[in-house]
Amino acid sequence: MPIAPIPADTPLSKLPNFDPRAIPVSGIDSHLPAVPREALAPAALRARFAAPPNWEPEVWAERKFADRQPARASVLVAVVMRERPTVLLTERTTHLSTHSGQVAFPGGKQDETDVDVAHTALREAQEEIGLAPGLVEVIGTMPTYTTGTQFIVTPVIGLVDPDHKLALNAFEVADAFEVPLDFLMNPAHHHRHSIEWAGVRREWFSMPYMDGSTERFIWGATAGMLRNFYRFLAA
């Protein structure tokens, strides 16, 4: 029996034998300035959201991969207020239907009972990693990012008490870890990738981070939203 061709709009993660780590880097934006460390302190972040600059996101949406009704979602960009601030990220379990095994922000689909986008992000973070909402100070939101699976995602920026305790939902989250914010806000660590598949060009960012001896490969939607966060802080 002949094998049916794979549609051009298949998600990258569903392509046969696709490994984003194996796709060559087409460029690194080391020519762009890093956000100064003093601009990443909690007081500076609060001030930036209180009086935002004139700017535009660099990445708005991915190529559409799903024939479904768009759904609203929120993620929590959790900035842990350590002496060197970090961003709290998760590694999704491998059996999930979307973005399995990938690095992601805690977050998910908006429920009808959610009051607003921040409520969604905080509720999902508590459900996924046990982060208590009372330990998060929401300071603002970023423009929406539409995934290929038609989730319209609002990144919610929150400052997190460094004494927080986590309790991972083992069904959804395989691991949680922190990456220094200054690493993520330095374009010298922003790698560009591209691939041609079925006549369609796909492009994305990655931000590989070595966590001790473990590589945390941040790419796709998570990297795209972090890139927009960089553009906001660097504007």
Task: Describe the secondary structure blueprint for this structure.
Layout: E1 25-28, H1 42-50, E2 71-80, E3 86-92, E4 103-104, E5 107-109, H2 117-129, E6 136-141, E7 145-146, E8 151-160, E9 173-180, H3 181-184, E10 191-197, E11 200-211, E12 214-219, H4 220-234
Parallel strand pairs: 2-8
Antiparallel strand pairs: 1-10, 2-3, 2-5, 3-4, 3-9, 6-8, 7-8, 10-11, 11-12
Which structural class best describes the helix and strand composition?
Answer: alpha+beta
Low-confidence runs? 1-6, 95-100
Q: How is the CATH topology named?
A: Nucleoside Triphosphate Pyrophosphohydrolase
Q: What is the H/E string?
A: EHEEEEHEEEEHEEEH
Task: Give the percentage of residues in beta strands.
Answer: 25-35%
**Measured on Cα atoms, how large is the radius of gyration?**
18 Å
CATH architecture: Alpha-Beta Complex
**Mean pLDDT, nearest integer?**
90
Helicity range of the residues? 10-25%
Name the CATH superfamily classification.
Nucleoside Triphosphate Pyrophosphohydrolase
Q: Largest beta sheet, briefly?
A: 8 strands, mixed
Output the CATH class name: Alpha Beta
Assembly state (oligomeric): single chain
The number of E-state strands comes to 12
Shape: globular
Number of helices: 4
The overall number of domains is 1
First-to-last CA distance = 56 Å
